[in-house]
Amino acid sequence: MRPIQMVDLKQQYQKIKAEVDAAVLSVLESSAFINGPQVQAFARALATYNNSQYVIPCANGTDALQIAMMALNLQPGDEVITPSFTYIATTEVIALLKLTPVFVDVQPDTFCIDPEAIRKAITPKTKAIVPVHLYGQAANMEEIMQIAIAHNLYVIEDNAQAIGCDYFFTDGRVKKTGTIGTVSGTSFFPSKNLGAYGDGGAMMTDDEALALKLQMVANHGQSKRYYHDMVGCNSRLDTIQAAVLEVKLKYLDEYIAKRRAAADYYDAAFAAHPKLKTPARAAYCNHVFHQYTLIVEGIDRDALNTYLAQHNIPSMIYYPVPAHRQKMFASFNTAGAGLPVTDWLTERVISLPIHTELEEAQLDFITSKVLEFASK
Predict the structure, then answer these.
(1) Which tens digit of pLDDT belongs to each residue from 240-284?
(2) Do 305 and 182 reside in the same domain of the chain?
(3) Does residue 38 sit in the same domain as residue 107?
(4) Global pTM?
(5) How far apart are CA 372 and CA 7, in angstroms?
(6) How far from the centroid of its chain's Cα atoms is residue 280's Cα?
(7) What domain count does the chain have?
(8) Which residue has the higher pLDDT, 72 or 376?
(9) Are 296 and 348 in a shared domain?
C-alpha cells in the first residue's frame, strides 16, 4: 500500500505527465510567460465548461474575491454578509477593503451559510452577500438569490472549493456553482479539485460591463496600456499555470467522479456508527467533495486526529477557529457574535483524505482505524 496523502498530486501528475509536460514545454519554447495565448485559451475552455459568459483569470482565489468587491464599487463601511465557518481568505478581503464583515451562522448539515441568518442580518448598510460553497457542496443559492433580489444586494460566490458542482433549481434549471450570483471567485491552489502547479484563480460573471471592470481592476485599472481609469491591482494567472489548467480541466469530471466514489466508500463504512455523522448531500446540488468532513459526537476529535497521525493517516481540522473569533477582526467586535452552529462545528469536524488517487486498500485502512478509535 502506498503512503496515504491528504491529496496525492504526484500520482495524479504521473497519469497526465505527457500532456502536462508538452503543455509546459510549449510555453517555455514560446517564452510568452505573461499573458500568453494559453491564458485566454484556458479562460475560454473554463467558460465553456461552466456555461459562463466571461471568465477573467487572476493570480489566486483571494485576489478573485477582492477584485470582485473592488469592481462592484463597494465602499468603506458597506456591510457584507458572510459565514464565519470558512477559510480566512473569504473574510479578510472584506476587512482589507475597509468594508464591514457581518458574520452569520451556517446550517449544521450542509456547513453552508444559513439563508434565514442572512435575512436577519440585513440592514440599510448591507450591500453584498458572500456565500461559500464549503467542502464541495453548494450553498442554497436559489433562496439566497431570492433574498438578494428582494433587497437589491450583490451576490459574490466563493466557489474555491466547489468548481464543477451542479446546482438544481426547483424549476428544472441546472447551473454550475460560480455562475449563479452577480460574480464569483475561484481558486486553483494545487490541492483544489481543479488545481494548478502553483497559485492561480479566476472570476466568472455573465455581466459584460462587470467583466470589463474586473479585467481592468486586475490589470492596474487600465483597459488601454498606460491609461489608468481606476485604482486597480496586478493580478495575473501566469501562462505556465494556464497551460497546466487547460490540460487538467479535461479531466475535472473524472476527478470529481473519483472523489465521489471515495466519499461513497466512507459513507458506507461509517453509516451504522452512532458517533460518526457522514457529510450531508443536499438535494439541490451534487457534492464534488473537495473535502470529506465527518462530524464526531461523543469522541475526542483532537485525540482522533492524533491517533490517525500515529498510524500515518493524515487528517485535517477545517477550521479550528472560525473567522469571527480571529484576532484580525477584533476591531469589529465580532467575537461575541451568537453563532452557535459555527462554534459547535469547530469542535467536532474532522476531514479525512480524499483525492483522485485513493486506492481501496487505503480507504479500507483509513476507515478501519477511524472505526477502531470511535468504538473504544
Answers:
(1) 999 999 999 999 999 999 999 999 999 999 999 999 999 999 999
(2) no
(3) yes
(4) 0.97
(5) 23
(6) 17
(7) 2
(8) 72
(9) yes
